[in-house]
């Protein structure tokens, strides 16, 4: 039944108005992160259509009071299977339970003013509904997206009023006010805090409580063996090694690693010891023609005394030799050279060109995670709640967010170019090889390999370069942890997804997935609804039985791929895409960062027209085929066929049903 | 190490026709008897001077490489003719028939710089006294940049061509010298089907028709058809019906409310040139009040006035801002480009150009709000009445009237508001380089096109014309062939064209207008002017455009300001008295709040209006409003970045989507053909999907992978698929300021220390 779907964001019906609780497909969309619906409108079909996507991640919009005449085909389709839900019933996802309810809470909406309503806390979300206006007003925040809960002073809203600010990781900070003397109030704050930070309160993450069943099993998306096989591995130079199968060699690496065939076990041990956190150079991607490879690792433990490790030097030599096309090897150190030097003092460092023969070392000058965190914090100030008009660009400029994006893209382009034009293998590392390294290798692979630009391929890319290779999602995001000031937190993954979005903007036809897909990923990075982004390493995930006890984000995505598909997609097979790393071509991703501002929302799905065209095409195609069938069997009536095709239904349309 | 990669990347990206021989070799090779090359001259085109062995630098780097050829100056253009065998022009799909990629129409020259060793000096005309520069850098108004080296030519030739170009491009000249006249005398353009297409507003019928179309009921004035009333007034115009004959000429048309457009509710938009009010002299005030009453009389005795001179930037400020803005795109070399890339966003704000665009759009929205929500007549005014009035009134009409969002409708709008409306194109573009007109130069029309582009970006499917169309239109202003942009007003145009006519006593000189697009582009190229995703109006109601807007839009019960609309139609004496009282007391008070004085209130009212509109279902054939928030006003990338090689996205850009759409359109057409063969039609109610697969034919054949974001202006020739990386500058470009101590911290080593 519909109710079981992820519908955290679906909305209850109003009396007398058919509910739009609907097909699982649309419903599940909203199950992602919830968002505030700051709209007070009476949306029509097109609006609904648009909402379906944006909401995806985000909004549970109130679709009440839809004038019957404006309801579109979609809308009718949506209404099928509608069910009456009590007005004040909180929509729940399977496994979700209500923990506390508080009445007469005021939401201090930065866009439309004060609204009073009921605030509900479940173990998964915070849900605010107000019925005081013509159309219900709903604000819906995923607990996982909350960075911290703070009491604020709200004197202006009357005496004895207590204020609460919910600072979120997804760029918004809704504020509530409620009467102090009400005995029920302290409770809800406590409950909220408890469930917002389950790990700090001895509770499980919600992903372990979530009971949704999907037809597709997203955990099967990534199989290292078949992904390496797709790349043509193993081959004579490279082998898939099981040396780390119990995570004993390196606890932050995956079980399967691709390493040079000819390396001896003893030598390997020394290399392991010489690389920070034992993250030895391993293959990430191999060029199908030139056999040039992208190899990732951590920094060598050179130290202040310029230690050498013959085995490590030979190891890199072997990597170079595996590629017959070039007698060089390029190392890209993602760090700023000054920082890399500082690391020497702390027993880290970088490969010396005089010890490693035929090796060229480049620094990509990318600032560290703390700089990035600070940059995003500044960006939030710029985009929420309101945006400056006249000084918008300088304000964005001062956050340096786009500037860092540029530096990152430049780095990735250089890596891709080295492989493609230089036919030279590259080694990429930063300090530990799980932050900037993951950003760079995955971006370069996205440029080089069109497979990763498909919906499935991109999932594989994330599973491989980010999740299995130990990007510390738990530490960087801080799932369920109340220590919001932890300096380990940093928006590196967001930065990466933003870079991908920049690429999709520059190459609107080259990616099979759409903007909604990227937003959905980011929303579930925080949501804790799916197990995909939980924990720091494969080892931890195995230990916590993530695959058996939680649902994969890809299960949800792949059970309705049409929602996440780009209608403009053309397979640029074998084409390397170099995004333009000029600030002139980078723009702030308003669809993500500024989406809480109702003024920034499009009213119409961007590619509505194209979709109509696609439907027309599908119809015509059907009709032509029918006619041909009829002609060949030389009987059958035209009228019946035209009747069938003349009432097209979007719901039965082509797979290219979504907008970007 | 870093730099090597960078320059290697740059070099290999060069087109293949680059000469790799050193200049010395060339010199010795050259035979003095070598025949001079000429471009294919247009009718009436005459070569003034030329020089051979001129090196044209390839635009995008500092290296001394380039192509040798002849540089010529004609009465139409500066032209460079390469010595190399012409490369296959097949790639040139979007070829302009009047001038090629190495031609610069004289009016298109913006600035000329002389290059002396490492210095660059702006040439302002006159004779260059001392040393002749060895290098000549030309910045064009369409933002191309040319660099020529004259040091390989004979000194005499070099001097001559340099002086010639400077003279013909920068020195004051008479209107008669513009190429249009010799061109038109030597060509005959039959009065093409132009009439059928664009409404020119050069006849009384055009005006009557337009007023009928919008159901206006004002007075059409045709008494000025021979400029008997006043040369300052348009040939034909419309005024409120209460305006008497004597009022027409009182202040040479100043203060006279000119009808622009009628809203379906009956209220209308008027514009006028304001009369400077002198304290002692009461006469103009009385006249002004009379005119206001006349406007108010048009509908419900309500009127709002808006003096744009007070609330929008002056034309000089517009020029200043644009001059700063355009510098970001006039790139002499790659280093400069990447350096400016760093400061890009801040520079954008500093020059204020985007903010001026926003202000114009906002003002237009304010006027729309009065017309649409309050059903009040609006009179906009400014000194002259033909600059920002044109911008605002045309924008208002674009937002309110879907007809003007079609290609022909848009052209008619430009004819109505700008050409017939008396925008001083000649003075504003200063084609003649008259010193006394330097002050009046200002890119007002471009500002309008910028605003249209913003609207188009935000509501693509509502416009039948494409971005490319707007870009080409903005270029055409600087091609001195079209009568559209050569004159200051109707009588000016009429006088000159009559005087220049070869057959005196007969019809005036027949010159093409810019709307005769076939003068510039062949049919195939013109297909790129239409937007394949245009959501066409459903057939059934194209016949009569009646109440196309859903009623509910008018029922917005938002707080209305100052001047309340009377509840009922019709004349009520006390209401009229009331009006008079207000007029009397407030004189020319501005009933509309101006942003400068009451900024928060106005913008919040506009904001409310926008938000109320935004919550309604979007109708591409109804009211359109722009979002004015910071992120929504963008840079017109196609126009400004198209020539900069470094920022061309190979295989990307909007054309990638376009080609996909074209492909589908083509398929749909094919399917429909098949169906037609089967003799049956599909009853489809897809309004957007009436396929006009014109664009398809243009792009379909070429894979979008091979096109770039500069399409169609630059077609990728032999470009290698190489990235542009600013590597050599990486170090110097790094932001270090803000990073501070954070940058030195270790990613994970810090332990549990917490930040703020």
UniProtKB/TrEMBL annotation, chain A:
GO terms for biological process: phosphatidylinositol dephosphorylation. Residues 399-446 form the Tyrosine specific protein phosphatases domain. SMART domains: GRAM, PTPc_motif. It is an enzyme of class 3 (hydrolase). GO terms for molecular function: phosphatidylinositol-3,5-bisphosphate 3-phosphatase activity; phosphatidylinositol-3-phosphate phosphatase activity. It comes from the Eukaryota. The keyword Glycosyltransferase does not apply. It is a peripheral membrane protein. This is phosphatidylinositol-3,5-bisphosphate 3-phosphatase. Residues 633-651 have a biased composition (Low complexity). Substrate binds at residues 343-346, 368-369, 430-436. Residues 1-44, 626-660 are annotated as: Disordered. GO terms for cellular component: cytoplasm; endomembrane system; membrane.
TrEMBL record, chain B:
Pfam families: 3-PAP, Myotub-related. The keyword Cytoplasm applies. Residues 201-640 form the Myotubularin phosphatase domain. It is found in: Cytoplasm, Myofibril, Sarcomere; Sarcoplasmic reticulum. InterPro entries: MTMR12-like_C, Myotubularin, Myotubularin-like_Pase_dom, PH-like_dom_sf, Prot-tyrosine_phosphatase-like. Keywords: Cytoplasm, Sarcoplasmic reticulum. One of its GO terms (biological process) is phosphatidylinositol dephosphorylation. Signal peptide: none annotated. GO terms for cellular component: membrane; sarcomere; sarcoplasmic reticulum. Transmembrane segments: none annotated. Belongs to the protein-tyrosine phosphatase family. Non-receptor class myotubularin subfamily. This is Myotubularin-related protein 12. It comes from Salvelinus namaycush (Lake trout). The gene is mtmr12.
């Amino acid at each position: 039944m519909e109710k079981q779907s992820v519908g955290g964001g679906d909305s209850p019906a109003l009396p007398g108005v058919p509910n739009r609780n609907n097909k699982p497909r649309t419903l599940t969309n909203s199950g992602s992160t919830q968002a505030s619906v700051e709209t007070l409108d009476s949306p029509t079909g097109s609006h609904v259509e648009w909402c379906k996507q944006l909401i995806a991640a985000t909004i549970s919009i109130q679709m009440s009071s839809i004038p019957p005449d404006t309801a579109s085909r979609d809308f009718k389709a949506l209404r099928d299977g509608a069910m009456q839900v009590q007005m004040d019933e909180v929509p729940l996802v399977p496994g979700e339970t209500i923990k506390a309810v508080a009445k007469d809470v005021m939401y201090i909406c930065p866009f439309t003013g004060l609204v009073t309503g009921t605030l509900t806390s479940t173990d998964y979300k915070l849900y605010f509904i107000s019925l005081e206006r013509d159309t219900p007003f709903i604000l819906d925040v995923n607990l996982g997206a909350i960075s911290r809960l703070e009491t604020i002073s709200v004197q202006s809203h009357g005496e004895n009023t207590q204020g609460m600010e919910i600072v979120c990781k997804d760029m918004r900070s809704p504020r509530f006010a409620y009467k102090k003397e009400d005995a029920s109030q302290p409770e809800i704050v406590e409950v909220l805090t408890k469930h917002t930070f389950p790990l700090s309160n001895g509770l499980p993450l919600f992903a372990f409580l979530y009971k949704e069943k999907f037809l597709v099993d997203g955990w099967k998306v990534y199989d290292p063996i078949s992904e390496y096989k797709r790349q043509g591995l193993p081959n004579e130079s490279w082998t898939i090694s099981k040396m780390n199968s119990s995570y004993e060699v390196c606890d932050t690496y995956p079980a399967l690693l691709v390493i040079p065939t000819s390396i001896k076990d003893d030598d390997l041990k020394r290399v392991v010891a010489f690389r920070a956190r034992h993250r030895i150079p391993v293959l990430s991607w191999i060029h199908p023609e030139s056999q040039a490879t992208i190899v990732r690792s951590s920094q060598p433990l050179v130290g202040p005394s310029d230690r050498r490790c013959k085995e490590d030097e030979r190891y890199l030599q072997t990597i170079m030799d595996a590629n017959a096309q070039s007698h060089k090897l390029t190392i890209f150190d993602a760090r700023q050279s000054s920082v890399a030097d500082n690391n020497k003092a702390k027993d880290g460092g970088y490969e010396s060109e005089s010890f490693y023969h035929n090796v060229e070392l480049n620094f990509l000058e990318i600032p560290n995670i703390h700089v990035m965190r600070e940059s995003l914090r500044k960006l939030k100030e710029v985009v929420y709640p309101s945006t400056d008009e006249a000084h918008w660009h300088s304000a964005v400029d001062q956050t340096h967010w786009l500037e860092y994006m540029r530096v990152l893209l430049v780095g990735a382009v250089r890596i891709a170019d080295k492989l493609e034009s230089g036919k030279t293998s590259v080694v990429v590392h930063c300090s530990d090889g799980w932050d900037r390294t993951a950003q760079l290798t995955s971006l370069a692979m996205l440029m080089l390999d069109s497979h990763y630009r498909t919906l499935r391929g991109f999932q594989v890319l994330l599973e491989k370069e980010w999740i299995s290779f130990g990007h510390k999602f738990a530490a960087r995001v801080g799932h369920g942890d109340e220590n919001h000031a932890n300096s380990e937190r940093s928006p590196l993954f967001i930065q990466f997804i933003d870079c991908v979005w920049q690429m999709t903007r520059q190459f609107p036809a080259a990616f099979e997935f759409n903007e909604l897909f990227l937003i959905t990923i980011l929303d579930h990075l925080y949501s804790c609804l799916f197990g995909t982004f939980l924990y720091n390493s494969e080892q931890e995930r195995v230990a916590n039985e993530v695959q058996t006890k939680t649902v994969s984000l890809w299960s949800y995505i792949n059970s309705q791929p049409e929602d996440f598909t780009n209608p403009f997609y053309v397979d640029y097979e074998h084409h390397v895409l170099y995004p333009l790393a000029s600030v002139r071509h980078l723009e702030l991703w308003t669809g993500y960062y500024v989406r809480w501002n109702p003024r920034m929302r499009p009213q119409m799905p961007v590619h509505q027209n194209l979709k109509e065209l696609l439907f027309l095409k599908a119809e015509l195609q059907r009709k032509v085929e029918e006619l041909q069938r009829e002609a060949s069997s030389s009987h059958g009536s035209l009228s019946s066929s035209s009747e069938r095709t003349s009432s097209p239904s979007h719901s039965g349309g082509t797979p290219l049903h979504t907008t970007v | 190490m870093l730099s090597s990669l960078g320059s290697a990347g740059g070099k290999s990206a060069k087109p293949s026709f680059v000469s790799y021989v050193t200049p010395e070799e060339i010199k010795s090779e050259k035979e003095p008897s070598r025949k001079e090359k000429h471009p294919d001259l247009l009718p009436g085109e005459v070569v003034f001077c030329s020089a051979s062995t001129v090196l044209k630098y390839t635009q995008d780097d500092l290296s001394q490489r380039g192509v040798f050829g002849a540089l010529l100056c004609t009465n139409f253009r500066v032209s460079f003719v390469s010595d190399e065998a012409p490369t296959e022009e097949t790639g040139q799909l979007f070829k302009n028939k009047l001038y090629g990629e190495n031609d610069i129409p004289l009016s298109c020259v913006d600035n000329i710089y002389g290059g002396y060793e490492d210095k660059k000096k702006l040439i302002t005309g006159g004779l260059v006294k001392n040393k002749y520069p060895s290098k000549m850098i030309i910045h064009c108004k369409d933002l191309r940049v040319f660099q020529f080296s004259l040091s390989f030519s004979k000194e005499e030739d070099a001097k001559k061509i340099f002086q010639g170009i400077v003279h013909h491009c920068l020195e004051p000249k008479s209107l008669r010298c513009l190429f249009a006249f010799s061109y038109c005398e030597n060509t005959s353009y039959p009065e093409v089907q132009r009439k059928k297409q664009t409404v020119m507003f050069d006849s009384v019928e055009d005006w009557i028709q337009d007023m009928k179309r919008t159901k206006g009921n004002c007075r059409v004035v045709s008494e000025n058809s021979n400029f008997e009333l006043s040369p300052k007034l348009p040939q034909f115009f419309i005024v409120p019906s209460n305006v008497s004959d004597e009022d027409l000429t009182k202040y040479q048309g100043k203060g006279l409310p000119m009808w622009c457009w009628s809203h379906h509710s009956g209220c209308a938009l008027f514009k006028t040139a304001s009369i400077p009010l002198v304290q002692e002299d009461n006469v103009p005030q009385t006249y002004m009040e009379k005119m206001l009453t006349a406007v108010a009389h048009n509908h419900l005795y309500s009127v709002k006035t808006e003096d744009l001179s007070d609330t929008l930037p002056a034309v000089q400020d517009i020029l200043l801002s644009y001059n700063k803005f355009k510098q970001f795109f006039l790139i002499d070399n790659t280093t400069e480009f990447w350096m400016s890339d760093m400061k890009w966003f801040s520079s954008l704000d500093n020059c204020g150009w985007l903010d001026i665009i926003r202000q114009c759009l906002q003002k237009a929205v304010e006027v729309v709000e009065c017309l649409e929500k309050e059903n009040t007549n609006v009179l906009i005014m400014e000194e002259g009445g033909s600059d920002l009035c044109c911008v605002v009134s045309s924008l208002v009409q674009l937002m309110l009237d879907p007809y003007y969002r079609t290609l022909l409708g848009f052209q008619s709008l430009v004819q109505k508001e700008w050409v017939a409306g008396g925008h001083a194109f000649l003075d504003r573009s200063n084609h003649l380089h008259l010193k006394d007109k330097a002050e009046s130069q200002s890119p007002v029309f471009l500002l309008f096109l910028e605003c249209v582009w913003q609207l188009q970006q935000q509501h693509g499917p509502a416009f039948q014309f494409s971005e490319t169309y707007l870009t080409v239109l903005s270029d055409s202003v600087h091609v001195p062939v079209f009568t559209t942009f050569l004159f200051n007003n109707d009588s000016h145009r009429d006088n000159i064209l009559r005087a220049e006519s070869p057959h005196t006593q007969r019809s005036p000189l027949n010159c093409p207008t810019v709307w005769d697009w076939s003068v510039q582009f062949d049919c195939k190229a013109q297909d790129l002017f239409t937007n394949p995703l245009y959501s066409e109006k459903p057939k059934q109601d194209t016949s009569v455009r009646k109440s196309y807007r859903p009623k509910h839009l008018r029922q917005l019960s938002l707080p209305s300001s100052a001047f309340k609309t009377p509840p009922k139609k019709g004349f009520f004496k006390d209401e009229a008295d009331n009006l008079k009282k207000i007029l009397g007391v407030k004189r020319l008070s501005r009933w509309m709040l101006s942003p400068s004085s009451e900024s928060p209130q106005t913008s919040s009212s506009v904001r409310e209006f926008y938000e109320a509109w935004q919550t309604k279902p979007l109708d591409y054939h109804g009211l359109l409003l722009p979002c004015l928030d910071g992120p929504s006003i963008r840079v017109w990338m196609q126009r400004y970045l198209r020539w900069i090689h470094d920022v061309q996205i190979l295989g990307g850009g909007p054309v990638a989507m376009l080609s996909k759409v074209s492909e589908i359109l083509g398929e749909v057409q094919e399917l429909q053909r098949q169906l037609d063969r089967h003799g049956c039609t599909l009853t489809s109610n897809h309004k957007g999907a009436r396929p006009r697969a014109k664009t398809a034919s243009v792009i379909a054949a070429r894979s979008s992978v091979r096109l770039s974001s500069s399409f169609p202006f630059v077609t990728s020739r032999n470009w290698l698929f190489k990235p542009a990386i600013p590597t050599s500058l990486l170090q110097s470009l790094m932001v270090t300021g803000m990073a501070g101590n954070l940058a030195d911290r270790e990613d994970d080593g810090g332990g549990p220390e917490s930040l703020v």
